[in-house]
Design brief:
Blueprint (H helix, E strand, L loop, with lengths): L21 H5 L15 E7 L5 E7 L1 H4 L4 E6 H6 L31 E2 L5 E7 L2 H10 L1 E6 L6 H4 L15 E8 L1 H9 L3 E9 L11 E7 L4 E6 L4 H12 L7 E4 L15 H13 L3 E4 L2 H7 L6 E9 L5 E13 L4 H14 L9 E9 L13 H19 L3 H8 L8 E2 L5 E2 L4 H11 L5 H10 L3 E10 L8 E7 L5 E4 L9 H13 L6 E4 L17 H28 L6 E4 L2 E4 L5 E3 H10 L13 E5 L8 E10 L6 E11 L6 H20 L30 E5 L17 H18 L13 H12 L36
Parallel strand pairs: 1-12, 10-11, 14-15, 20-21, 27-28
Antiparallel strand pairs: 1-5, 2-4, 2-6, 3-5, 7-15, 8-13, 9-10, 9-12, 13-14, 16-17, 18-26, 19-20, 19-25, 22-23, 23-24, 26-27
Length: 816
């Protein structure tokens, strides 16, 4: 069925409108990659390493090749012999000594070594899926096991197993950002320095739809068509064509249909897509592959994974004078661009948050481990940096006996200070952080918390309330397609290079165009995800879609109007300067002579021999350059109750106030926030990837990896306090990742607030019932808990040089 707007819907930005695709999706009309079937297709299954680290001495595939229905078994040597290029790894960034990062190339299939459980080794292609699976079981890799290390702190220590010869000591990137000298000077003279050791746990992304790919090759045209998930097809087309298969981009068509969630994970380039493309060309028939959930736990890039000693310096008046993050970033077995960016530059750009911080510094060692590679996961460093900042400021208030609200207000960037240049080099254009906080305290009923806490105590529960004021760096950079086409049937077709993974692009972009052109939004059709139609674009990521693509559609709409004024002048026999556009029609100023936009487009289609200075159509296709970064911000308030006898934490209330600037569709914005908050709650309380000592994943399915369930999630209170930006035409700031940025610190601050009554000063994520109970019991015995260590002396400190954690001594991850 077509994705159409309800009849009651009128056009305009700012209206809450349901997603147009929902009726189709919930009635089984979705078309995901695994729904694509091609005549004569074969089935591929990936053979993955069951060993975390070892020499790959050979692959015995003789038995598999002789099994029923088997068409081929490919190894890394086969792909290399065919001249295929490698997949991308981190590059182009400088270590603290000025040398460039030397990240090993990412092979499509393992050749010399295997470095994590789940690494692709071979591809089996057969007539049926059952035959391919059976043959894959018969492929016997000869792997000589080596010692494995999956803990980032252990991997960074001298004598740890060497994972890549090219990466001495497993430190692939040694980063310094900010002004370390200024930070050290500020901390040496501070009245107080608060220090915490903070663990951002490794998580599985787990979107609803597993990754899949279907490839077809036309030998006569020497042309591939690849159906796969993505966050934008244009980049992927160019990369696969030019860097992997060494052909022209026009020889590769990428199609992305419906996508059941991505959260950053489906943006990178994956080996399975290349493998099925190679097999389709080699066999001369379509080849399909779809991951199962167990394999996706191993092969989909993971998220988060860092260990940081965080420090905040205060003067005698409680003003922040410096903040420093020193830590390790686990990048997994392969240093991908996202994995390296997250614990380094992303930390630096986001750590200032909403505060006046004169000096900041980040030192990070990115560590190779025998674990699944790390890449972007909803926020990609934004939630981590905000989590560390908000935990620090809560702890600083506790250390110095100050009220946590007053300490935040004292350090907020005031509304009259914008534009405000941060020490990380960014310039905030606007914001009202005091107003956001005030509204959050109001809607969360903060003032009544004492009574609620007393009531909980009467029930034997520990109740805590936590606040997080957050800000994240979003949007900005890149380029984006904006295309408007007037179709013969009277529809308006709009195209952009972003990719909807569940955000509701079709309705929100239609609102933008309808608002600009005054057309019936029910006639607007959004096209995406096909390189035969999408000639360029930056894709979806970093909460950029509305800023970039919305801006592109506004620019394209304005060009439509300018073309229309010239064409209407010709049709109405008036000068273009005398034509005005309003409410979807062109009118001669001061008269009632007018022509509607859609009627004008139809007349131009039918006209013959138009003068050269009259547009032949109103169609527009342009590449839009978005403005600078935007800075969505807000305040989250969480309330929890803890049962001290079991360690079970219950979220009993949650309130959010956000400043996203202009909200094009408040209904979709609210849904985006709730989704991000739930993912943050999952990381804070339940989710964590655990490996055995020999590198075997112990959390390999939903039976032992705890995604948040409905009974963990409270009812939400949501409000907005918008301060529209002037850096883009919409005034939008982006909203897709903000829920995670606020929820991690809000939940953990609330939990620490509750546990303080039991003598627990700090606990790390994930705060599972067992770990909460252990922390309470340790406090009862007067012993430090696993999470008590901060890496520093946390007593009030003044004078001298602040002690620093030794490289490679960032601390062991607690055993689970």
């Amino acid at each position: 069925m077509p994705d159409t707007l309800p009849p009651s819907y009128k056009f305009g930005v700012g209206q809450p409108v349901p997603r147009t695709e929902d009726p189709r999706l919930i009635t089984g009309g979705g078309r995901y990659t695994d729904d694509v079937h091609r005549p004569g297709e074969a089935h591929a299954v990936i053979v993955r390493s069951s060993v975390a680290h070892g020499y790959l001495r050979g692959i015995d595939s003789e038995q598999a090749r002789g099994m029923a229905g088997v068409l081929a078994v490919y190894s890394g040597a086969d792909l290399a012999a065919a001249g295929l290029g490698d997949l991308p790894s981190a590059s182009g960034v400088a270590n603290r000594d000025g040398t460039l990062i030397a990240s090993p190339a990412q092979k499509i299939l393992a050749r010399d070594k295997v470095r994590y459980v789940g690494e692709p080794i071979a591809v089996v292609v057969a007539e049926t899926l059952a035959q391919a699976r059976a043959a894959a079981e018969a492929v016997l890799p000869d792997i000589e096991p080596l010692p494995a290390v999956t803990d980032m702190a252990a991997a960074a220590k001298p004598g740890a197993p060497q994972i890549w010869d090219e990466v001495p000591g497993n430190i692939v990137f040694d980063y310094l950002g900010g002004d370390l000298a200024a930070v050290e000077k500020a901390m040496a003279s501070a009245a107080h320095v608060t220090r915490l050791r903070l663990h951002n746990n490794r998580v599985v992304v787990a979107p609803m739809e597993p990754r899949a790919a279907v490839a077809e090759y036309d030998s006569a045209r020497q042309h591939w068509t690849l159906w796969c998930e993505s966050q934008g097809v244009s980049h992927y087309q160019i990369f696969l064509a030019e860097q992997v298969f060494h052909v022209k981009p026009s020889q590769v068509r990428i199609i992305t249909g419906d996508v059941g969630g991505s959260f950053g994970m489906k943006a990178p380039d994956y080996p399975e897509d290349v493998s099925v493309m190679f097999a389709a060309r080699d066999l001369g028939r379509p080849v399909r592959w779809c991951d199962d959930r167990s394999a996706s736990f191993l092969s989909d890039h993971h998220g988060r994974a860092s260990l940081v000693d965080a420090a905040m310096a205060l003067d005698a008046d409680g003003k922040i004078t410096a903040v420093r993050f020193d830590g390790l970033g686990d990048v997994g077995a392969q240093a991908l661009g996202g994995g390296v960016f997250i614990p380094t530059l992303s930390f630096l750009r986001n750590m200032v948050s909403v505060y006046t911080v004169p000096a900041v510094a980040v030192t990070t060692k990115c560590v190779i481990t025998n674990a699944t590679p790390i890449a972007a996961y909803r926020g990609a460093g934004r939630p981590e940096a905000n989590y560390m900042m908000e935990r620090l400021i809560d702890q600083a208030a506790r250390d110095t006996g100050r009220d946590r609200l007053e300490l935040r207000r004292r350090n907020f960037i005031p509304a009259n200070a914008f534009p405000y240049k941060t020490p990380s080099g960014l310039t905030y254009d606007c914001g009202d952080f005091h107003g956001v906080l005030d509204k959050a305290l109001e809607v969360s009923e903060w003032a009544g918390f004492a009574a609620r806490k007393a009531a909980a105590k009467g029930r034997g529960k520990l109740r805590g309330i936590g606040l997080a004021s957050y800000l994240e760096v979003a949007a900005g950079g890149g380029k984006e397609l904006g295309e408007i086409e007037f179709a013969e049937n009277g529809d308006l077709i709009i195209r952009a290079g972003t990719q909807d993974n569940g955000q509701g692009h079709a309705v929100s972009f239609a609102q933008v165009v309808a608002d600009q052109l005054g057309v019936d939004p029910a006639r607007i059709r959004y096209r995406q995800g096909d390189t035969d139609e999408i000639r360029d674009g930056g894709g979806t990521g970093g909460s950029r879609s509305m800023v970039a693509a919305g801006g592109a559609f506004i620019e394209a709409s304005r060009e439509v109007v300018e073309k229309g004024r010239k064409a209407a002048g010709h049709m109405l026999e008036a000068a273009a300067d005398d034509i005005e556009f309003k409410d979807g029609a062109f009118r001669i100023v001061g008269t009632d002579r007018a022509i509607g936009l859609m009627d004008l487009a139809a007349q131009l289609r039918q006209a013959r021999d138009l003068p050269a200075d009259v547009p032949q159509s109103l169609d527009v296709s342009l590449i839009h350059t978005p403005g600078p970064n935007t800075f969505p911000n807000g305040a989250h308030v969480a309330e929890v109750e803890v049962d001290p006898e079991t360690g079970v934490t219950e979220l009993v209330a949650y309130a959010v106030v956000d400043d996203f600037g202009t909200s094009v569709n408040p209904m979709l914005v609210e849904g985006q926030v709730y989704g991000g908050v739930v993912q943050g709650i999952g990381q804070a309380l339940t989710e964590h990837v655990v490996y055995s000592e020999d590198g075997q994943p112990l959390t390999g399915s939903f039976m032992d990896y705890a995604l948040p369930r409905a009974d963990l999630i409270p009812n939400f209170v949501f409000a907005e306090h918008p301060v529209p930006t002037k850096t883009n035409a919409l005034g939008a700031k982006g909203c897709g990742e903000a829920g995670c940025s606020g929820s991690l610190p809000a939940v953990m601050n609330a939990l620490v607030d509750a546990l303080a009554e039991a003598g627990v000063a700090h606990i790390n994520m994930p705060a599972t019932p067992a770990r909460v109970w252990q922390a309470i019991e340790a406090a009862r015995r007067g012993e430090p808990s696993e999470d008590a260590a901060t890496g520093f002396d946390t007593s009030p400190y003044a004078g001298g040089k602040a002690p620093q954690a030794a490289a490679g001594d960032a601390g062991e991850e607690p055993e689970r």
